[in-house]
Structures are given as structure tokens and as C-alpha cells.
Design a protein that fits this description.
By secondary structure, the protein is of the alpha/beta class. It is built from 12 helices and 8 strands. The protein has an 8-stranded mixed beta sheet with strand order 2-1-8-7-3-6-4-5.
């Protein structure tokens, strides 16, 4: 393996910032899946669903039935994927049609804007005020507004689940210890308990970030063994800080979801698929907090995705 250089060490933070700004997911290896016939509503019928526990395609209604019996459902998306946004809306519509009580939780809103989001849902703030103060994502109007408006119409709570981005960036620069410098009200906008285990999720994160950092011009040769060691140590420290920032996001989203788990309620959490694929990330951290909860993972993936390793259900467009 080539020794890392100073240039390679500098490349890692730039790549990792992309992950912090908007969660990304690697495209899985291709495996052919034949969609099952469906008698669902038109929105749901446009989806092809694989039940990975059965190892075969099923009608979307089978997935919706399972979701209606769950305590928490994670829907993992690629943020620019229209199939994902159709899936999310179909899940909420179907839960509403079944009379299920729902809490919608969104990675796309950060916890410090919860009071403004609550005010909008209750009619105490206008949509213009929400858009001005809640830092909605650029694709909010097209992709997430329909979810929020459906929840608002049905009187469902909407949870701003994510850690504030400035605090994730603070950790990316200074590590978890940087949070100790914050005033108590600010510190409470991220999870109280923060763990960054050396587990399969970290290995996946390292593989993704290492691959991103390796793109671009080839690194210059180190001038000495000492310089190579220094560059390698700097790259490892930088990677660890960015992993800690990722942990802050996962732990905070998990804590946000855990706080609203209740009997007779289905919590639907919408997030980038990296946070929930394979039951890792936010899912694993929720299960640590709520081991009794019935949790389902839905992953919306490109056609031909390797369904078996992504979630309990894998959804693609037909």
C-alpha cells in the first residue's frame, strides 16, 4: 500500500465534508430482482419491493402491512432519488389509510429548529417563517414538503431529529471533546450519550471515506520516512474526527427517535441510506436505547441492487 502524503492527508477532510453536508451511499453490487404483481394504490404500485427475509419480491401492500405493525421504521434514501420520495409518501399515506398513529421524524431538520417546526404544525407560524428559520434542504419543496404537509393535515407530530450541522462540523475539527466547550443548552441539541465503537459501521465509513479521499491527482512522494509517518498519523486522526462527527449525527437521530417511541405509534424516520442500511448506524444506536422496539429497515435502492444486505425491505422503481 502506498504511503500517504501530506496531500493525501489534506484530501480526506474535503471528502468527509461532503458526507457531513449530505449523507451519501455507495451503490451496491448488481443482482437481478423480478417485481411481484401488485394490487396496491397507484403510488404504491409503481414500486417494486423485495422482502429480504423471504428472499423474494412481494406486493407493496405486504411491506405496508409489516410497517403498520412496527414501532419504528427507517426509510433509507439517496437524497436525489424520486423513487425514494415516492416510497416515503406512500408509506405515510398507507399508514394513514390504516388508521395508524404516526410520528414522522426527519434527518432533514436539525433539533434546534424543533420549536419553529412545532409552531408551524400548530398553525402558530406561517410556512414562510418555517422556510426562513428552519434551514430546509434545497430540495425541501419538491421532496420533503409533501411529507410534512401530510403530517400537518393529519395532526401527526414531526420530529427534527438531526444534530445541528455546526456542531457536527465542530466535532469534525476538534473531536468529541470539542462538545465539552459548549454551553449546556447548546450541548443538549446533540445526544447525551455518544459512542463511536470500532464496529462494522466504522469499517464501512472508513472504506467509503478512504475511497473518496483516494480520488484526484496522485499524491506526491513523501520526502522521508518521518514525513510519511506524520502524514499517515494526520490522516488517521482526521478520519477519526470525521467518524466521531458521523457518530454524533447517528446518536442524535437515534435519541430523537427513542424519545417518541410509544405503544400504538409507528415512528417513520427518513434518512440517508448510509445511516440505516444493514441495520447499522442510527438503527443500531436506536436498538441500544430501545431494545424492545419492533424495528424495520426499508432501503430504497437503484434497480439491480444487492437486496439481501440492505434492509428488511428493499424498494426500487419498476
Amino acid at each position: 500500500m502506498p504511503s500517504p502524503s501530506r496531500r493525501h492527508a489534506r484530501a480526506l477532510p474535503a471528502a468527509a465534508l461532503l458526507l457531513l453536508a449530505a449523507c451519501v451511499s455507495a451503490t451496491p453490487a448488481a443482482t437481478s430482482v423480478t417485481p411481484a404483481p401488485s394490487s396496491d394504490t397507484p403510488a404504491a404500485a409503481a414500486l417494486a419491493v423485495v422482502d429480504t427475509r423471504l428472499g423474494r419480491a412481494v406486493a407493496p401492500s405486504a411491506m405496508h402491512d409489516a410497517i403498520a405493525g412496527a414501532d419504528v421504521v427507517f426509510v433509507g434514501e439517496r437524497h436525489d432519488d424520486p423513487v425514494a420520495h415516492r416510497t416515503e409518501l406512500a408509506v405515510l399515506e398507507e399508514l394513514g389509510r390504516r388508521g395508524r398513529r404516526v410520528v414522522l421524524a426527519l434527518e432533514m431538520f436539525e433539533r434546534d429548529v424543533q420549536p419553529l417546526l412545532d409552531a408551524y404544525l400548530a398553525g402558530r407560524a406561517t410556512e414562510a417563517e418555517l422556510l426562513a428559520g428552519a434551514r430546509p434542504w434545497p430540495n425541501y419543496a419538491a421532496d420533503y414538503r409533501p411529507l410534512v404537509e401530510l403530517a400537518r393535515a393529519r395532526g401527526w407530530p414531526v420530529v427534527a431529529s438531526n444534530a445541528p450541522r455546526p456542531l457536527a462540523s465542530l466535532v469534525a475539527r476538534g473531536g468529541l471533546a470539542a462538545l465539552d466547550t459548549l454551553p449546556a443548552p447548546t450541548r443538549r441539541t446533540v445526544a447525551a450519550e455518544l459512542r463511536c465503537p470500532e464496529d462494522a459501521y466504522r469499517a464501512k465509513f472508513v472504506a467509503l471515506m478512504g475511497g473518496a479521499a483516494s480520488h484526484g491527482a496522485p499524491p506526491a512522494a513523501p520526502t522521508s520516512a518521518a514525513a510519511a509517518d506524520s502524514a499517515r498519523a494526520a490522516a488517521a486522526a482526521s478520519l477519526q474526527r470525521f467518524y466521531e462527527a458521523q457518530c454524533v449525527k447517528d446518536e442524535t437521530m437515534a435519541e430523537s427517535v427513542a424519545a417518541v417511541v410509544a405503544p400504538g405509534v409507528t415512528v417513520v424516520h427518513v434518512n440517508g441510506s448510509f445511516h440505516s442500511d444493514e441495520g447499522l448506524g442510527t438503527v443500531d444506536r436506536l436498538r441500544r436505547r430501545r431494545p424492545e422496539a419492533r424495528v424495520l429497515v426499508v432501503s430504497v435502492a437503484p434497480r439491480g441492487a444487492d437486496a439481501a444486505r440492505l434492509g428488511d425491505y428493499v424498494v426500487t422503481g419498476r
